[in-house]
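Thread amino acids onto this structure.
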């Protein structure tokens, strides 16, 4: 296969790996997030995520114990899968670890954590935006209790300090702005700095 053909094939393989692994990581993070936010178990999203991820989470719980009521096995799995994705993508791009393999692996470990932080922030921001939109167009939707549970830990911080203006709750705006700042400054900086070390 010529260089151009291999470039097309490797590009398609990288896309498939990033999509498949990324969706599974997001499913695990959502499962962890719903459990952390104490979302009611009897909702379609929680049941779907449990059915999708139980085959890996249950064995992982034998190795990784919970802490303070948190399912750390789910979080550890998300990190391991993200680490595997980064490793596979590097291999498909032709990266050679060479004599600095230990340093490169340490960078991959930290990069996987930074990507998890980015995904977690995106999940929180999507939940806040969905809750705001649904509160306008369908306040009595069956999804509202779930979204309220998911966003309450973030919104409550600002609702205590920022009063509504004209009966409009501004706390979602503050949460989205802070999440955007976190994505632009520490998370993006960490990902770029770590990627330069590879």
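Threaded sequence (198 positions):
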């Amino acid at each position: 296969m010529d260089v151009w053909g291999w470039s097309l094939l490797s590009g398609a393989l990288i896309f498939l790996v990033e999509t498949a692994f990324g969706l599974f990581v997001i499913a695990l993070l959502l499962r962890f997030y719903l459990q952390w936010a104490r979302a009611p178990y009897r909702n379609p999203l929680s049941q779907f995520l449990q059915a999708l991820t139980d085959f890996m989470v249950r064995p992982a719980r034998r190795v990784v114990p919970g802490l303070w009521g948190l399912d750390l096995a789910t979080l550890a799995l998300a990190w391991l899968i993200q680490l595997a994705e980064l490793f596979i993508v590097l291999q498909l791009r032709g990266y050679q670890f060479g004599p600095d393999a230990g340093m490169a692996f340490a960078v991959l470990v930290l990069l996987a954590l930074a990507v998890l932080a980015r995904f977690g922030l995106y999940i929180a921001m999507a939940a806040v935006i969905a809750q705001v939109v649904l509160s306008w167009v369908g306040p009595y939707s069956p999804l509202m209790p779930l979204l309220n549970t998911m966003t309450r830990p973030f919104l409550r911080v600002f609702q205590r300090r920022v009063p509504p203006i004209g009966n409009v709750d501004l706390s979602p705006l503050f949460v989205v702005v802070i999440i955007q700042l976190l994505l632009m400054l520490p998370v993006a900086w960490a990902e770029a700095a770590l990627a330069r070390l590879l």
